[in-house]
Amino acid sequence: MDKKIERQLSLPLKNAFQMSLRNFRIRFGRAIIVTMSILLGIAFFMSVMTSNSFTMALIEKGPENIKTILIENLEEIKVRQKWLVSLSLLVCTVGIINSMLMAVTERSREIGTMKCLGALDRFIMELFLLEAMIHGIGGSIVGSFLGVLIMTVVYIFQYKKIIISIFPVLQILKYIGISIILGTGLAIFGSIYPAIVSARMEPAEAIRREV
Amino acid sequence: MPREVIVRTINLKKTYMLGKIPLPVLKGIDLEILRGEYISIMGPSGSGKTTLFNMIGGLDKPTEGKVYIDEVDIAQLDAYELAWLRCRKIGYIFQTFNLIPVMTALENVMLPMIFAGMSTDDAREKAKQLLETVGLGDRLHHKPFELSGGQQQRVAIARALANDPAIILADEPTGNLDLRTGKEIINLLRQMNKEKQVSIITATHDLKMLDVSDRVIWIRDGMIERIEDRENLDIRVGHVEGEEAG
Ligand SMILES: Nc1ncnc2c1ncn2[C@@H]1O[C@H](COP(=O)(O)OP(=O)(O)O)[C@@H](O)[C@H]1O
Ligand SMILES: [Mg+2]
Questions:
Q1: CB-nearest partner of A118 from B98, B103, B115
Q2: Residue at B71 is within a domain
Q3: Is the CB–ligand 1 distance for residue B47 below 6 Å?
Q4: How many domains does chain B contain in total?
Q5: Residue B70: inside a domain, yes or no?
Q6: pTM above 0.95, yes or no
Q7: Which ligand is nearest to the CA of B55?
Q8: B145 occurs within a structural domain
């Protein structure tokens, strides 16, 4: 009967990664839009987290007068922040879904062609998700540092040099790590649906479609 | 050589639905294509050539009827087997070339071999050879947009040959090319057909194609009008070309 061993189709991760990276680099215009929504979302998240870290550090180590003011408003600020952060991350995810769907439409002929060459649905999904991961990592690294930078500048204006002396390095590094994981996660999450759409395209239809 | 049927269609029908209105495009196509044959499918634009190709190539499902590739009913294949068939048994060539724009000529030709599980090094070697065969040994690292139409189609031919398919489906391969380049592409296809014993099925409304064909299948309105062997063709060609000019 059929030799199953011979009937293998594969897309090694190394090749898939190269292809996705290439897509990211060459289609930079589109890539930037996807990356921007992650970047901005994460920058906002990180600025809030940085602000929190500063506040906590000021409460712990700062001068008495600042401490009391901060403690008074602490609870209210935290509630409002949770809202804003969730909302901004939601908007960021919707942005990713939207621009990835556009990328899928733009590339429908390419997807159809790959299927003619023997790509399984799963390969197409893999390529899109890998690309999303690259967007996610890139966008959230830049975004998180941007967030820290902006908030640091803001706090230095308000509290002057104290901020430098109490700068909560470890805390902020921790949040940068969380940001990168969060941003990458959201980028992948937001790309699942577009990736499924692309993988399910019928080759004849995908090739016919003019963009 | 034994008569070996590589493509067989039986009462093949395809009807598209435009909203609620059925649009019959293929109205019962019965075909047998032999291994190593060079077939031209001639017919005016809109006669159903591309639709027929999509059915034969396993890119779309017929409304009725059967397609056998190498005596296997492709309706019985699961998604994985169908992808395997597209990868290993069939090479596709399109009017619009359809190279992957972000990849070089070499990488485009390597891709089907990578899918087929070949190692990157082996795939690169073979892709180089194929590109040399189609006369692009000096264009390995060019991107599609850096190549002329004729060169892009050569890359597409090399890519179609990558996994030594039994069949090449070429849908109007010269449709976007000028006369001379078109002739070169056709001669190249014929050469590959002879050298590699791959069956070539090309759709066209281009009479230049007739010269090289073993058989010509004329379709009109989704039906086979007539099938002509090479021997009977010579007389006809003169006649038809006269018609075209007049
Ligand atoms: N996906 C589709 N949906 C609806 N109509 C289609 C579709 N594909 C092709 N057709 C119609 O089928 C007919 C035959 O098309 P096609 O097979 O592309 O012809 P050819 O390749 O011979 O020019 C045309 O009238 C075309 O509009
Ligand atoms: Mg057509």
A1: B115
A2: no
A3: yes
A4: 1
A5: no
A6: no
A7: 1
A8: yes
